[in-house]
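Protocol step 4 of 6: structure prediction from sequence.
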Amino acid sequence: MHIKNFDPYDFSKKEIDGVMVYYKNLPWAPCINISVAFNTGAFSDPIGKEGLSHFLEHLIFDGSLKFKDKKVVREWSKKYALNSWNAYTNFYETVYHLKCLPENYKKALEGMKDMIFNPNLKKQDVEHERGVITQESWRRYKNEKFLTYTKEVIDNLYHGHNYSRVGSPLGWPETINKISQPDIKKWHSEKYVKSNMSIVLVGAVEEKGLGLLKDFIKNLPNKTVDKYKKGEVKKPKKLKIVKKSEEIGDPNEQAEITIYRSMPYLPESRMAIVTLFRVLVGDLLNEKLRFEKGLCYSVGMSTWLFTDVSEIFMNIKTDEKNIDLVQKEFWKIIKEIKLGKYKSKFNTLKKVNLEQTKSRELVSEDVTDGAVRDLIKHNRIIPLFYEIKEMEAVTYKDVANFTEEVFDPKWTFTEIILPSKK
């Protein structure tokens, strides 16, 4: 179905009994996506109990007042939620989500409400999930050496910020071990309340369907919740770290160079600049370092943008003999961008990116995920027309100035991991 000028991110919103609801009807959608988000993530976790929000998320799926155990929960998901009942925890929020057919919408809401607000939180389930989460954590941190090194790098980049004590929403193996059943019950009673939640509906959503949300929200607990205090991003303690891969517990065949820049929150007004900056720098790094000079095996350019911290980094895998040359070429490219050498390439990439944005094919899950991400980062859902308008206004000078801001040598941290010795 083609609908001219249809904007999938032009959401409606409505407050129902103190809970903000964002909703979007997609005429082509055969299902309804429901996301229930709580403002509790890793950055809110108590000191020494990092991983608590994520731990609680796991236990919601282990049974509740009406669902005696996880087997019953799984069967319910298959019957009413297209086997999609799931959740995730990030630095700022815990989000529970599913999709269902319109005829199962009421049952889906009833089941979600009971599991989220009336979980069993049994001691045996706590211990079982502790084992699961601990294994998940060690898959990320690999071994004690790598764990220690990860903490060193994070503290170097984010000292004084919540990021420095968290690392990931999983928490650390040692803090996961300290979380008790009473901690989890207390956290649930404090954070899973009306004043701390929002709901996103996407798909076959009709105005009359919002009426059922009144029953979902009715009689939910409510209390004042302390708001997350945003952190301050400081200059790295060290501007460069060089380690052997054996030293950090992560043996590798290639050398790895990562250049980081940590920044404060980047507002939505700068998102289009960030996007075209990433596209231009990423394209140039691949063209110059991989295709023209053959200096590396892979090049990655990423931007991780959060509510009170942004991380921009470039990662290159290469031969040890090329380390100095790769860094020299990288800074040469950055200097050439600032001097205006790549205006023509920028205009081409901007045109392509605009066309890709306008032609983006979205299913209801894509729209739901994008909407929730916008709410987490910017506290509003950014319409597609706004994204396009902002991107059309970006000039080469905007990107060149941002490049200079990002790769300020006083703020840029370089990590070099030398390959394993055979």
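Step 5 (inspection) to follow. Residues 294 and 346 are 23 Å apart (CA to CA).
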